[in-house]
Write a structure and sequence with these properties.
Layout lengths: L1 H22 L6 E4 L11 E4 L15 E5 L5 E2 L1 E4 L9 E4 L8 E8 L15 E5 L5 E5 L4 E5 L1 H8 L12 E5 L6 H10 L11 E2 L10 E8 L2 E3 L4 E8 L4 E13 L2 E12 L4 E9 L3 E7 L6 E5 L4 E8 L2 E8 L5 E7 L8 E7 L5 E10 L8 H16 L3 E4 L1
Antiparallel strand pairs: 1-7, 1-26, 2-6, 3-4, 3-7, 5-6, 8-9, 9-10, 10-11, 11-12, 13-14, 13-19, 15-16, 16-17, 17-18, 18-25, 19-24, 20-21, 21-22, 22-25, 23-24
């Protein structure tokens, strides 16, 4: 009798072990492979939290720790809510990986809400700026940008000094790797100083006006480029340390009789000179993303096969390169559009909407005085390599 009881207990035990193993699978490793023959860094890897087989504890920002298996050191990571349902579902990190090689990483949960980054204000950062009319500004450790909201538009329309009427993208020429947005706005609005003068960190001396600046869009019809006015609504999705992301919505606008609706989902990653633009648009199947030609005294270049356009010009005591990269073969043409209309001369990349009805491209700049790119050749090489890396992304597997 005793032996039968022991056998029954043994069978129950085996059954429980089997259930436990089924419900709690072994945590997997994140393996990242670089398929190219160049070393790569500052490229963001995205991994679903569900794929990591972690426990069921609620995810909070910074609660995922990513460890380099080779060095056993924690690397900077960021958890995000990629689908907007209010719960973080993805972890981002940036491996530094050699050519034709692979790296392995482990993920675990931590009670701490801090990451390997100690930035009080993340170096990858964006915010709405009501203290200077109503800009929206964003930056990382290399570049900074801004664009303009409805109050700035209304000021122009009502002849109030200080407004701006533009859906163009402004370039803020920084030459330090720490955050400057809050510092520069404070200098401009609360002190006798101004961000239009360089005191060692850079300055705002880039003219946008009604041009496309660095990546604003237009719709071409019957030889004319039609553009929107300022954004009407904004929504910040998340801030660094790896990525900042936000959405700008525009009022419906007219393109030679066609009503256009436009929404920009913009993100910027650490280490990149280019912001990613995902444009949701109705009323057209092609858009044109542009970069301003200013006085048209610089040098333009374009490569339709690789999917990029570039403009290199002098700016005061330095030089600047601007560029747009279009992935996935969606760049269907380009045009250097010159006109006598003020600020309307732009170099355009024509982009076909993808199957989701969206246009995706990357736009940004490199300022010579920052020490990042010293000449046009270096800048165009950066755009060429950027396009190649988009074509051959880092490969992520769970093992």
């Amino acid at each position: 009798m005793k032996s039968k009881q022991l056998a029954l207990i043994g069978l129950i035990g085996l059954s429980l072990v089997g259930c436990f193993e089924k419900e709690t699978p072994t945590q997997k490793k994140i393996v990242v492979t670089n398929p190219m023959d160049v070393d790569r860094e500052f490229e963001t890897v995205s991994v679903s939290l569900d794929s990591l087989y972690l426990d069921e504890t609620d995810v909070t920002e910074g609660s995922i720790v990513i460890i380099d298996d080779a060095t056993k050191e924690q690397i900077i990571s960021q958890t995000i809510d990629s689908d907007g349902d209010g719960t973080d579902d993805t972890v981002l990190f940036q491996p530094k990986i050699q050519a034709k090689s692979e790296m392995s990483f482990s993920a675990s949960r931590s009670d701490s809400t801090t990451t390997a980054s100690n930035d009080t204000v993340p170096r990858v950062y964006s915010r709405f700026v009501p203290e200077r009319t109503d800009d929206y500004a964003w930056e990382n450790n290399r570049v900074a940008f801004r664009t303009y909201g409805p109050t700035a538009q209304h000021m122009i329309e009502n002849d109030v000094k200080g407004g701006t009427l533009s859906s163009g993208i402004d370039a803020w020429l920084k030459r330090v790797d720490y955050p400057i947005i809050n510092k520069w706005y404070y200098k401009e609005t609360e002190t006798e100083g101004t961000y239009h003068e360089d005191t060692g960190e850079g300055l705002d001396n880039f003219h946008v006006g009604s041009s496309r600046g660095v990546g604003g869009i237009a719709v071409k019809d019957d030889g004319t480029y039609h553009i929107s006015k300022n954004f009407t609504e904004w929504k910040r999705l998340y801030n660094g340390p790896i990525r900042t992301s936000f959405v700008l919505t525009y009022a419906a606008w007219d393109a030679n009789g066609a009503e256009i609706s436009e929404e920009k989902h913009i993100s910027l990653d650490c280490g990149s000179n280019l912001s990613r633009f995902e444009i949701a648009i109705d009323g057209t199947d092609t858009i044109s993303a542009g970069i301003t030609l200013h006085d048209n005294e610089g040098t333009t270049e374009a490569n339709k096969e690789q999917g990029w356009i570039s403009y290199w010009e002098a700016i005061e005591d330095s030089e600047i390169g601007m560029g747009i990269v279009v992935p996935g073969g969606q760049m269907v043409g380009h045009e250097k559009y010159e006109t006598d209309q003020k600020d309307r001369s732009n170099l355009y990349a024509h982009i076909q909407l993808n199957e989701d009805g969206k246009a995706v491209y990357y736009a940004g700049f490199g300022w010579k005085k920052s020490g990042q790119y010293m000449n046009r050749t270096e800048w165009e090489k950066y755009l060429e390599r950027y396009a190649e890396k988009l074509k051959h992304p880092l490969v992520v597997e769970m093992r």
